Amino acid sequence: MNNSAIIYATLSRIFSDLLDEQTVFDIKNNSAFLELLGESTKLYFENSSIKKIVEDLNVDFTSMFLLNTQPIESFILDAKQEALVGLQNPVMEFYFRNGFEIDMNQTEILAPDHIAIEFGFMQTLAFRGELLTARDFLDRHLIKWVVPYLIGMKAMAGTPFYRDIFSFTIEFLLAERENLEGIS
Question: What is the pTM (predicted TM-score) of this model?
Answer without folding.
Answer: 0.91
